[in-house]
């Protein structure tokens, strides 16, 4: 029988885990969240919350995953036999399934923009109208979504070493190179320093409870915790790898990419007189308009959307991997068939989300459109509840002997981690959960 795969190296695991975290959360959501929450103070709070709260919960997933050495459901059954904790795994699978069903829609939008950029079809005076026309076109959004899902399936069906690790080793370094290239271009624009000041010079008038909550939520969810993705990836990790160091590296990479996204976007926004508080339309509406106005803008917009595609794919493959690893259990020779079967099913489930800005725009759901409802089920319900239960499981169900054996850090660091996942992280998650609905 085919054996369960493992990562070939620590760097392969870190790049794949970082890729799972560094998706639209870092490149799409972080800039507009910073832009609408005052910039620099939000950035400072985001960094603190990532290292103080997000990192320990990420480490909790790593501990559970490597300890269980299987898919999330089986690992939790093994670690807490005869109890119901394995439902965390099923919840993570459900959240990943729904999340990828609408995440692939955004991936399709990115492919549409990339195709237009390659053929120099983004030169328009009304980018808002272009964006609305793209997302309302049923044929274009479904074709884009289908191509994106095929790319995701193709990577996952090739396995951990030949698929996910190989793709991460290629895409993550290229992502950094493209980001640095774009950041250099953005910083050379006249008036760019105004954007840097907005990003890094604190305006303490924005130091409010609302900004703290927004930063805490962004830090937490940008690390991709709560859906068992990191638990699944850690299950393929060898025993000698240091989990604390890996979790720290993933967190730092997530912060660096988020800051690079800000350095790419805000200098250009300020240099060309746009508003940093544009919101979710920042990358699809404002940035193409900005690139149209600078020398060699056509080239740089291609680079930007290739970067967006890489970042989105590295996250989508982790979501599909959760579903596939649970579906095949120990029948590893069924990976290829399972990847195509579950990928096709996720595409079908995502069709209503893809059409929710066009032919199904009049269908009202809790939270707004069908797309918004799927986002609400995962981002605002599934992820925080999953992260809360993971913190409780790592803090109270696993013994100190089990967690210390996996962590292998200094005893004081082990105790600090245990304190955070037992008390600080659960309180923070509950606050975020309640605040997201009150807002």
UniProtKB/TrEMBL annotation:
The chain crosses the membrane at residues 12-30, 42-64, 85-111, 141-160, 172-192, 212-236, 248-274, 294-317, 338-361, 381-398, 419-438. The keyword Cell division does not apply. Keywords: Membrane, Transmembrane, Transmembrane helix, Transport. It is a multi-pass membrane protein. The keyword Transferase does not apply. It comes from the Bacteria. It is found in: Membrane. Its main location: membrane. Signal peptide: none annotated. PANTHER family: TRANSPORTER. This is Sodium-dependent transporter. It comes from Sporosarcina oncorhynchi.
């Amino acid at each position: 029988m085919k054996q369960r795969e493992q990562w070939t190296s620590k760097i392969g695991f870190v790049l794949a885990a970082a890729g799972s975290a560094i998706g639209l959360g870092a490149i799409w959501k972080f800039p507009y969240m910073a832009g609408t929450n005052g910039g620099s103070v939000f950035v400072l709070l985001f960094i603190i919350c990532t290292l103080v709260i997000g990192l320990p919960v990420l480490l909790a997933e790593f501990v559970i995953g490597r300890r269980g050495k299987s898919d999330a459901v089986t690992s939790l059954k093994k670690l807490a036999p005869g109890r119901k904790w394995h439902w965390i795994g099923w919840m993570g699978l459900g959240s990943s399934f729904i999340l990828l069903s609408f995440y692939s829609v955004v991936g399709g939008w990115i492919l549409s923009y990339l195709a237009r950029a390659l053929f120099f079809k983004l030169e328009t005076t009304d980018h808002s109208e272009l964006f609305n026309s793209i997302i309302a076109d049923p044929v274009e959004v479904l074709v884009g979504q289908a191509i994106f899902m095929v790319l995701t399936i193709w990577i996952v069906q090739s396995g951990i070493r030949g698929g996910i690790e190989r793709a991460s080793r290629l895409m993550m370094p290229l992502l950094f190179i493209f980001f640095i290239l774009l950041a250099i271009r953005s910083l050379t624009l006249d008036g760019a320093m105004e954007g840097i000041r907005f990003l890094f010079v604190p305006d303490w008038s924005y130091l409010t409870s609302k900004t703290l909550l927004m930063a805490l939520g962004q830090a937490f969810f940008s690390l991709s915790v709560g859906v068992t993705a990191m638990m699944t990836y850690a299950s393929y990790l060898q025993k000698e790898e240091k989990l604390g160091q890996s979790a720290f590296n993933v967190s730092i990479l997530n912060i660096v990419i988020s800051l690079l996204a800000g350095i790419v976007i805000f200098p250009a926004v300020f240099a060309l007189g746009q508003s940093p508080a544009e919101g979710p339309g920042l990358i699809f509406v404002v940035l193409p308009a900005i690139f149209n106005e600078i020398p060699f803008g056509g080239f740089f917009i291609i680079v930007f959307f290739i970067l967006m595609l890489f970042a989105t794919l590295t996250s989508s493959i982790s979501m599909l991997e959760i579903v596939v690893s649970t579906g095949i259990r120990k029948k590893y020779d069924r990976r290829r068939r399972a990847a195509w079967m579950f990928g096709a099913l996720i595409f079908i489930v995502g069709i209503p989300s893809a059409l929710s800005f066009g032919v199904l725009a009049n269908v009202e759901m809790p939270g707004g459109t069908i797309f918004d409802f799927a986002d609400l089920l995962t981002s605002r319900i599934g992820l925080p509840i999953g992260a809360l239960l993971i913190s409780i499981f790592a803090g109270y169900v696993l013994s100190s002997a089990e967690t210390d054996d996996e962590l292998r850090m200094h005893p004081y660091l082990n105790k600090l981690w245990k304190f955070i996942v037992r008390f600080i992280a659960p309180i923070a998650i509950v606050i975020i959960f309640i605040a997201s609905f009150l807002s």
